[in-house]
Specification:
Number of strands: 8
Helix content: 25-40%
Number of helices: 7
Shape: globular
Radius of gyration: 18 Å
Distance between the termini: 24 Å
Amino acid sequence: MSQPVRIWYVAAQRLCNFDCPYCVSVGSWAKSRRYDWKDPGDRDTFTSITGWLGSRPFEVEVRLGSLGEPFASPFFLKRAGWLTRQPGVRYVELLSNACLLKQRLPTIESMANLGKLSLWLTWHDSQMSLEKFICAARFAQEEYGCFVVVNALLFDDSETVKRVKSAALEAGLRFNVDLGYDPFAPSKAFEHTGDAAAAVPLMRTADALSTVVACGGDGALTEVALMGLTSPLGRPAGPATTTCSSTSMARPTGVRGTRSWTGIPTATSWTRGSS
């Protein structure tokens, strides 16, 4: 039996209910507090792509990214829900801030197979309390059977990350650490000098690898992520695109891998099927 094709598609859905100062959705890829889709054609493209993903004659594993918050978009959720009901789709993964889970999951239950929905939930401490965040993550996992990973961004406060880890494990949730990035580092104005610290604030004050490991992250994967900040020619990595591709950037089953967001790679520690 052949292995499923792993696909990561980043849609142009932009509406977001958070205002994080470190958000990497900037410039031409900026999120919005006013509109869901900047161009009506973006929504049509999303419909076409999800239709294509759900009709493949082979099994696929799909990570659906967006520029904003997917649970702020009823249309995005409708299409994601449709994908989970297709027999050839093993799972659909969404990246979310968790704030709207309690309001939105009940509304899509009838149109989705929530047991095939994976949620990569990142806590943003300036936007939502940790207690409310963990409560929402547990709700998704325990009430609807979603595969949930709690993700913490590591900038320069390792104690905060350790607090998130403790809260996640105490609640029976999976945990991951991602490096925090300077959102303007991958822009056209970024002059690559070969120094990853230009993009990774943590590296300006501490040893990133040892700090990630101390916080419960994977040092080897973090090292790979840092190497991915540059292209083979030493230039800044290019921006993410809104086309689909069958690459190792999507979460493999039983294998750890890397993922990229607007040209910035990050290490993923959890895969569907992991204990």
